[in-house]
């Protein structure tokens, strides 16, 4: 069970400002039903003073998501857009007397919905650069968001990043990338990892391991792009594969083979070469 | 406020008769069963009596019962023993919907031991794909481990049918019966199964006691090595009070099963039917034709499970959810996802698991309290039936 503060409980059990503002001047939206939480914030702005005169929310999510959203509406009411734009996720969490680490993403969601609403009101186009680098594919989190959240909240570990942005909390494939981003952000010179001495695998173990990696990791990924691969033979450290489907004519087929080779080297700790039949 | 406890698949209350049976072993009867003096030695007889009571519940012989520390230990021991006794076979088969005591141990075996593990799929009703099982069997299969009944949906797997298939091929069969024991009759005299795991606290015995049944003639390698306790099959001084308590709980469960589970199922069905009727856009997860009599998993669309649970908590009502927010990770229930239940429904899933201690009035209270909670939480939600279509489509696309 989560350790929620009385303030969180209060705002969860009796949330203020639920619903949609009539004829809103802007609506900020963030999250999705698939990810498990989503927030829609509607605001009414006084044109003369640029003050937010009303704000309401609709939230799909857990207790802390509902409480964070409700607090957000309380925080923004009466503020000018400039003042509101300065509200951070820490402000939301503080107002609630703190949130469990694992729930910090609820406060980040609040901040993002507010930024979205303010930007929309000001006519700032949502930045959807096509080159935006999505790091976490499970929860659709960009490199930029990871960098920004890390700096704003002084986050140093992947676990923290997951708590605040959800990135890395799904399949976990992007965790090495998040580590890399954190290293760059905090300019930590790469600490040379002590070479881990891997237990030498027997021939049978190595073959089983290679089969397993191909079957459970590589093939599902290729299939997702309409391709596939067959394991033709394992001859010592040479792994012979056959590319199938879309992979056959794929211009980046060479890259794929290289990638598989690196992965197999990594798991077996041996100098594997991968070749096509 | 009185607690209404509908989370019996998580744990159960210790039966008052069980507590009573255990108490002397904390006070005057504190001896060690291995001692030479009568004071300790008399404990031995009491442990053997409990062993017979456990055996009686599942149609086993007393010497086939090994007391362990918990269901997880029993599960780990079974897989480990199968692997150690068959060193040449390096393939394990299990399902995608097992308890983490099996799933994570199989992952461990794959990573540390280089084992190949097959995770069998289930269909949208949570039923096992028998063709996939047949296809995955080969000469290297060391053990097949399949749960008797699923903890989240209550769906029961065809253990007898699977057992016959495996016995014909001489493949070792382990069954995690933690959720099934005491809820449905199990008769190992007729069931072709080699090993079975049980857990005390799921059937009104205390936490910290489990059982591994190993059929006579099955090769076995112990996991905990030390003293000669449990005939050398599980070291460690016996947890006497809990063993006695588990024996008593099994005796009570046997009587309860003899009375029949129809009243319990009727209570569950009443709850389920009333909630479905009063809450639109709610669905039951799992095969309703073939379920434990005490379990129902219901998904309430457009709302999130943790929020539902914490609102119920205000009324002293205890249930659980498969939503991501309650899992401790960001991923929702692996069971419901394996069934291909849309994420929208997984996030809003609530599991009620009853016991024979539940009363009609408690069920009536939930029926009264929950529908308004769902209605209110839905009024907060940006999603609803009108917007549902598009999200379902996104979901289906992702699932592919």
Task: Looking at this protein, list some descriptive labels.
heterodimer, A: 277 residues, alpha+beta, Sufe protein. Chain: A, Arc Repressor Mutant, subunit A, GMP Synthetase, Chain A, domain 3, 3 domains, three-stranded antiparallel beta sheet, three-stranded mixed beta sheet, 8 strands, 43% helix, B: 400 residues, alpha/beta, Aspartate Aminotransferase, domain 2, Aspartate Aminotransferase, domain 1, 2 domains, seven-stranded mixed beta sheet, four-stranded antiparallel beta sheet, 13 strands, disordered C terminus
Characterization of the model:
Chain A is of the alpha+beta class and 277 residues long. Chain A is built from ten helices and eight strands. Chain A folds into three domains: 6-121, Sufe protein. Chain: A, CATH 3.90.1010; 134-185, BFD-like [2Fe-2S]-binding domain (Arc Repressor Mutant, subunit A), CATH 1.10.10.1100; 203-276, Fe-S cluster assembly (FSCA) (GMP Synthetase, Chain A, domain 3, 2-Layer Sandwich). Chain A has helices at residues 6-13, 63-76, 81-85, 89-95, 104-121, 143-153, 158-165, 175-185, 203-224, 253-268, and strands at residues 26-32, 37-46, 51-60, 134-136, 141-142, 227-235, 238-245, 273-276. In chain A, the strands form three sheets. In chain A, strands 1-2-3 form a three-stranded antiparallel beta sheet. A three-stranded mixed beta sheet of chain A has the order 6-7-8, covered by helices on one side. In chain A, strands 4-5 form a two-stranded antiparallel ribbon. In chain A, helix 9 packs antiparallel against helix 10 (253-268). Residues 189-193 of chain A have low confidence and may be disordered. Chain B folds into two domains: 16-257, 3-Layer(aba) Sandwich (Aspartate Aminotransferase, domain 2); 261-399, Aspartate Aminotransferase, domain 1. Residues 388-400 of chain B have low confidence and may be disordered. The chains are: A alpha+beta (277), B alpha/beta (400). At the A-B interface, strand 2, strand 3, helix 2 and helix 9 of A face helix 9, helix 10, helix 12 and helix 14 of B.
């Amino acid at each position: 069970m989560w350790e929620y503060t009385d303030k969180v409980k209060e705002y969860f059990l009796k949330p203020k400002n639920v619903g949609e503002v009539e004829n809103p001047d802007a609506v900020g939206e963030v999250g999705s039903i698939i990810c498990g939480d989503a927030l829609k914030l509607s605001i009414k702005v006084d044109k003369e003073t640029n003050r937010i005169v009303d704000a309401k929310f609709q939230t799909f999510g857990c207790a802390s998501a509902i409480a964070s959203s409700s607090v957000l509406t309380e925080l923004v009411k009466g503020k000018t857009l400039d003042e509101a734009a300065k509200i951070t996720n820490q402000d939301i969490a503080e107002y609630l007397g703190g949130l469990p680490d694992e729930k910090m993403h609820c406060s980040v969601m609040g901040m993002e919905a507010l930024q979205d609403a303010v930007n929309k009101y000001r006519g700032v186009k949502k930045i959807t650069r096509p080159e935006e680098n999505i790091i976490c594919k499970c929860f659709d989190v960009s490199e930029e968001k990871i960098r920004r959240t890390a700096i704003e909240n002084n986050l140093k570990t992947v676990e923290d990043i997951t708590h605040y942005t959800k990135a890395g909390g799904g399949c976990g494939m992007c965790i090495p990338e998040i580590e890399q981003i954190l290293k760059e952000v905090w300019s930590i010179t790469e600490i040379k990892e002590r070479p881990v001495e891997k237990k030498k695998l027997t021939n049978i173990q190595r073959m089983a391991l290679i089969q397993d990696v191909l079957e459970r990791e590589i093939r599902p990924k290729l299939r997702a792009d309409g391709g596939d691969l067959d394991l033709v033979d394992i001859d010592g450290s040479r792994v012979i594969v056959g590319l199938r489907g879309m992979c056959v004519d794929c211009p980046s087929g060479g890259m794929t083979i290289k990638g598989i080779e690196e992965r197999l080297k990594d798991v077996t700790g041996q100098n594997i070469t991968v070749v096509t039949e | 406020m009185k607690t209404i406890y509908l989370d019996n698949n998580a744990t159960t209350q210790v039966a008052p008769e069980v507590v009573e049976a255990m108490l002397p072993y904390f006070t005057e009867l504190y001896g060690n069963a291995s001692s030479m003096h009568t004071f300790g030695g008399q404990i031995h007889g009491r442990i053997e009596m409990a062993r017979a009571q456990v055996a009686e519940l599942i149609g086993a012989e007393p010497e086939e019962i090994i007391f362990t520390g918990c269901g997880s230990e029993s599960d780990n021991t079974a897989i480990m023993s199968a692997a150690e006794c068959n060193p040449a076979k390096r393939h394990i088969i299990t399902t995608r919907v097992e308890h983490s005591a099996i799933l994570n141990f199989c992952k461990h075996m794959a990573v540390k031991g280089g084992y190949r593990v097959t995770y069998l799929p289930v269909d949208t009703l949570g039923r096992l794909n028998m063709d996939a099982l047949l296809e995955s069997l080969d000469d290297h299969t060391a053990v097949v481990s399949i749960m008797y009944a699923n903890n989240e949906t209550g769906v029961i797997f065809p253990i007898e049918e699977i057992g016959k298939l495996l016995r014909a091929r001489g493949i070792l069969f382990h069954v995690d019966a933690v959720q099934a024991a005491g809820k449905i009759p199990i008769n190992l005299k007729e069931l072709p199964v080699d090993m079975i795991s049980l857990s005390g606290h799921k059937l009104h015995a205390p936490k910290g006691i489990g059982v591994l049944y190993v059929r006579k003639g099955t090769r076995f390698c112990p996991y905990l090595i030390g003293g000669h306790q449990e005939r050398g099959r599980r070291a460690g001084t016996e947890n006497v009070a809990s063993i006695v308590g588990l024996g008593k709980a099994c005796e009570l469960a046997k009587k309860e099963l003899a009375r029949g589970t129809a009243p319990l199922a009727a209570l569950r069905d009443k709850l389920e039917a009333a909630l479905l009727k009063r809450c639109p856009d709610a669905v039951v997860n799992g095969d309703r034709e073939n379920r434990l009599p005490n379990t129902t998993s219901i998904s309430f669309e457009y709302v999130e499970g943790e929020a539902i649970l914490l609102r119920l908590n205000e009324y002293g009502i205890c249930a659980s959810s498969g939503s991501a927010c309650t899992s401790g990770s960001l991923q929702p229930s692996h069971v419901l996802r394996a069934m291909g239940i849309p994420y929208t429904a997984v996030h809003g899933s609530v599991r009620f698991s009853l016991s024979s201690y539940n009363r009609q009035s408690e069920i009536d209270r939930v029926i009264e309290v929950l529908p308004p909670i769902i209605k209110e939480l839905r009024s907060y939600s940006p999603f609803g039936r009108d917007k549902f279509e598009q999200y379902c489509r996104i979901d289906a696309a992702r699932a592919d």
